Amino acid sequence: MNSITLKINADKLIMSALREDISDEDVTTNAVMPGYKKGTVELICKQDGILAGIEVFKRVFTLLDEATEFDITVADGAEIKKGQKLGNITGDIRVLLSGERTALNFLQRMSGIATYTHSITELLKDTKIRLLDTRKTTPNMRIFEKYAVKAGGGGNHRYNLSDGVLLKDNHIGAAGGVTEAVRMAKEYAPFVRKIEVETEDLDMVREAVDAGADIIMLDNMTHDMMREAIKIIDGRAETECSGNVTKENIKALADLGVDYISSGALTHSAPILDLSLKNLHAV
């Protein structure tokens, strides 16, 4: 995540997180450190995983004090090991103390998502299937969580509702059927937008193909039903498998030959990666 992206899209969210943690003042820090003193602290990895969010981590401190300095030895996407020192943060001790929790919350959450995503991409590495996330993200954390999926080797589905056409069951119900929903989408959406249709049975698959859908999502189907659906589609549309996909069951889907597998679990079920700031001292 580069500096421009941070300033345009992420700064206001990071500041909101800081305000949540410091509504008035950091009473504890102000009690033990009433004035400026320069210090340094170490960023330590306490669990094997994939790093994601280091620029967001750093931005927390620089928003509090632009003079904060960093000597970080690893980059996003890198494999990190338990006990590994990832670098030092140096600056006003009051800033290091007050920003610690917010910075770690971002880094641990994003690294956890990257680690979980990486573990699933490893299960698909001998296939041509592309692993995608969904919009099942934490409110106000989407930009960070979707970035973390990419750092872990996955891909992003739609960023938001303005990003593409995905006709789900309720859209289809509102339109009166698959054929009518696709027709209306083609008339309304710019021609450069692909149209994806969520299907739940083979009749919907046939209708989506005939209607000219660009991508057909096979949602919560049995393995045998998905295999039959792919035969029906026969290359006339791209295919996506979705619905309760997790690390535990994704390997069984790899032999289907779909183009994409999407999983909300990448963002809504990934545990954090344990990281810590330790050994703070004056310099």
Rounded Rg: 23 Å
Q: Give the terminus-to-terminus CA distance.
A: 30 Å
Order of helices and strands: HHEEHEEEHEHEHHEHEHEEHE
Regions with pLDDT < 50 over 5+ consecutive residues?
Answer: none
The secondary-structure class comes to alpha/beta
Q: What's the arrangement of strands in the largest beta sheet? A: 6-11-10-9-8-7
Q: Helix count?
A: 10
Largest sheet: 6 strands, parallel
Q: Average pLDDT across residues?
A: 95
The rough form would be described as elongated
Number of strands: 12
Strand-residue fraction?
15-25%
Helical coverage, percent range = 40-55%
Would you kindly provide a written description of the structure presented here, covering whatever features stand out?
- The mean pLDDT is 95.
- Helix 4 packs across helix 5.
- The longest helix has 31 residues.
- By secondary structure, the chain is of the alpha/beta class.
- The two termini are 30 Å apart.
- The strands form 3 sheets. The chain has a 6-stranded parallel β-sheet with strand order 6-11-10-9-8-7. It has a 4-stranded antiparallel β-sheet with strand order 3-5-1-12, covered by helices on one side. A two-stranded antiparallel ribbon has the order 2-4.
- The protein contains 10 helices and 12 strands.
- Helix content is 42%, strand content 20%.
- 37% of the residues are buried.
